[in-house]
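Annex B. Sample input.
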Amino acid sequence: MVTATRGFPSLLAATVILLASLSLVPANHSASWDEPVIVTTDKELYIAGDAVQVNVSVVGPLFACFSSACQSFFVVENASGEVVYDLRKHYYWAQIPTCLCAPPTVNFLYTWDQKDDSGEDVPVPGDYTIWGFVAGYNQGDPPVAGDSTLISIGEETASEFALVAGWNFILLPLAGCDYFASNLGLAFGDAIFGWDSSAQSYDGAYVVGISPESADFALEPSVGYWIHSSTARSLVISGTAPPSTQNVQCAVPAQGGWIALGFLGFNSTRRASDVPAMYSEPGGIMAVVAYDAGLYEPFYVFDLSTDFELTVGQAYWVFCSASGVLTYAV
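Annex B, continued. Sample output.
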């Protein structure tokens, strides 16, 4: 099922709508505006069955008159470029005149339930491209395609990892988790802290049962977090297997700095010495530091004898001499 809303109502609408006037085919009689047409989604990674929020934005200023209520739509293609879902086949527009006289940007908001045109769930895991359109400028004109965005959909899976009493430096190894500090499963009084690599300071602090709702924050993929647990316990998280390649933006001050980094997936063959070659800036990574039960274990790029194996679900301090992108295969 698809729902659709717009960021604001049409300026002109008919007062009487006849059922017989409903049509799948948009027909517009005049429009003029400056592109681009932009399409975005609320996430990049989804678990099978999740609602996908689609936003088709038209950058104005614009003035457009339509002879139908259809002003925009989207289609979904699979990895082979085949259209698996076309909104026009499932959403009816009344054939009534509508006009837009919009500010710089107008947003058309839709929800896709991961069904194909026949009403079946789209195959997962899989990558899907969502294209945004606005209806043609003149009577009989074809729709105007905007840009597209790529999403990935995977089967839901679960992962369990252990916390020790005291400090833990962890990340969530699954993608599409949608976890916040408040719903991770920690006990009353347990605390979780984030790190701002640009400012080189802790950013975000949440104590379960004590911090206000405004202090809550989302847990991002490939990012490490500090958790202080009152007792040893296990956490079970749900998500989906991440895409095969991850690109992590690493922002540090001009003089360099530390990032809190972890690796998605369950690859247990990585070593600290593998990390420098993943970075876009040659020589940009100087050290990788592990934390375990109150002790730090550093790897220095100039001393291979300090190398160690990376652990799934564990986060690491990584010193970068410059900002860059860290790319790794899951």
